[in-house]
Amino acid sequence: QVQLVESGGGLVQAGGSLRLSCAASGRTFSAYHMGWFRQAPGKEREFVARIIWSGGSTYYADSVKGRFTISRDNAKNTMYLQMNSLKPEDTAVYYCGSGSRSGYDSWGQGTQVTVSS
Predict the structure, then answer these.
(1) Are 116 and 11 in contact (CB under 8 A)?
(2) What pLDDT does 55 receive?
(3) Sheet of strand 18-25: strand arrangement
(4) Are 33 and 25 in contact (CB under 8 A)?
(5) Residue 103 CA to its chain's centroid (Å)
(6) pLDDT of residue 14
(7) Measured on CA atoms in the order 68, 72, 73, 78, is the torsion positive or negative?
(8) Is 90 helix (H, G, I), strand (E, B) or coil?
């Protein structure tokens, strides 16, 4: 089982930027696809972005496309989410997940992102 730890969340004004990190340990990081999800108060967890094991392919939710960039450094066992042009509606707890084509089998504890208007 992999352990995932998110960091980098915080409070930022609308239009600002944050970079989230997800550090992995416990299994071969480079063998697994990774993704970011978020959950706002009173809402279900939603997909944000994903990146395949090699980093060669990424996919984004329409709501973040053009503003967020997902990346990974397999040498550092870490995934990132660069978030630019943040909006109040981006406020949520952000979670990273690890898995395969079958789905995600491991999750981090989450990091809070709050965007003020």
Answers:
(1) yes
(2) 87
(3) 3-7, 18-25, 78-83, 68-73
(4) no
(5) 15
(6) 98
(7) positive
(8) helix
Reduced to 3 states (helix: H, G, I; strand: E, B; else coil), residue 88 is helix
Q: Which residues lie closer than 8 Å to 15 by C-beta, 6 or more apart?
A: 85, 86
Question: Average pLDDT of the chain?
Answer: 96
Query: Reduced to 3 states, what is the DSSP secondary structure of residue 40?
Result: coil
Sign, CA dihedral 62-67-73-78, equals negative
Q: Report the alpha-carbon distance of residue 107 to residue 114 in Å, rounded.
A: 20
The DSSP symbol for 9 reads -
CB-based contacts of 5, cutoff 8 Å, min separation 6: 22, 23, 24, 108, 109
Given a cut of 90, whether residue 23 has pLDDT beyond it is yes
- The one-letter code for the residue type at 68 is F
Tally the residues of the chain: 117
Q: Which amino acid belongs to residue 28? A: T
